[in-house]
Amino acid sequence: MHPESRTLIFVYGTLKRGFCRSHHLTDQFFLEAAVTVPGYIMYDCGEYPGLVIDAAAGVSIQGELWSVDERGVAILDEVEGVSENWFSRQQIELQHPTISETVQAYYFQGDVTRLRSYGSNWVKEA
Known about the structure:
Blueprint: E1 6-11, E2 29-36, E3 40-44, E4 49-53, E5 62-69, H1 70-79, E6 87-92, E7 94-96, E8 103-108, E9 117-119
Parallel strand pairs: 1-8
Antiparallel strand pairs: 1-5, 2-5, 2-7, 3-4, 3-9, 6-8
């Protein structure tokens, strides 16, 4: 019997503890607060943030690191609209914690040209 497959997921917005979509992670494992390396921009999409890669102008983003089982990843993919190409789940690089395992995050796939940059920490009320 093989151990259960788990994925490390960095969340930075409405999936964080205490926010409106955090209930999707209640049966998963919160590991710790996390911060990305510089190179990302978080845009204000209204009720939620959208993260994009920007190596030139990006900043470090604050969030949380979670260990998520296969069923949980499928639920998060549905919540984030991966099959509709609203968000895509891809690798992200953290500066804290320093880990050698692959970490993934959900990246916004929409047009950000008219959105304002939100900064490094999503704190809007859920």
